[in-house]
Amino acid sequence: MSETLAEVKNLLKGGEFLVKESNYNDTFTPEDLNEEQQMIIDTVVSFVDNEILPVYDKIEKQEPGLTNLY
C-alpha cells in the first residue's frame, strides 16, 4: 500500500463526508473496488444466500446440530 499512516488517519469515516468539509476524491464509493475486493463481496453474498438464509430460522432458534454439518 502506498498510503502513509497520516493519510489513513485523515480519511473520513461513515457519513462524515456529509457534515465535514471534504474533497470528492476522498469519498470511497463501490466503483472504487478492485477486482479482488469485488470477488470477496460476491463470495460472501453467495455464502449468505446459499448457506445462511436457508437455515436462518433454525439459527435464530439456536437449534442443536447446526454446526455439525459434516
Descriptive key words:
70 residues; 4 helices; elongated; mainly alpha
Give a structural overview.
The mean pLDDT is 80. The chain is mainly α and 70 residues long. It is built from 4 helices and no strands. The radius of gyration is 19 Å and the shape is elongated. It has helices at 5-9, 16-19, 35-52, 56-60.
Find the structural class using helix and strand composition: mainly alpha
**Average predicted confidence as pLDDT:** 80
- Detail the poorly predicted runs: none
β-sheet strand percentage = under 5%
The ordered H/E elements are: HHHH
User: Helix proportion of residues, in percent?
Assistant: 40-55%
**Overall radius of gyration:** 19 Å
Terminal Cα separation, in Å?
A: 39 Å
Form type = elongated
How many beta-strand runs? Answer: 0
Largest sheet: none
Number of domains: 1
Total helix count?
A: 4
